Amino acid sequence: MKNKLLTLKDFDKTLVGYLYEKDQQVAKINYKMSGLEAYIETIKGKKIGVVIAIDSNVLGWSLCNTKIREEVTIEDGAVIVQKIPNDTFNKSEGISKALQRADIASTLSTRERESFYRKVPFSIQELFNKMNERSEQYFKYND
Fold it and tell me: N or C: which end of the chain has fewer CB within 10 A?
């Protein structure tokens, strides 16, 4: 089962929510003929995780490793420090991994599912809890 790449089309009904990085505000300066113009630009955060519900209280999650690692190199006697993200979010892989976890959760009893959900990373728990509440309403009238 781990080799199969699951997609949203493999399920009749799904509920998807994404986790984003925090928005950043960057000061910008625009040079014009009339003088300088300063303003603040908001840069939207990138997707870093996904939570998917395939039934009421049956969810899966995927979260990329967003910690930044530093790579130090010496070039011509100068020390160069580069900040490199460990992982970037791949939408299809993230959805597939979340669907695999949701598929596993669907085979578990309620008690086993609660134990399985304790593995949800802290940084995505808030979205996970919101999606769990939404799934109860979304799948309320499943046939």
Answer: C
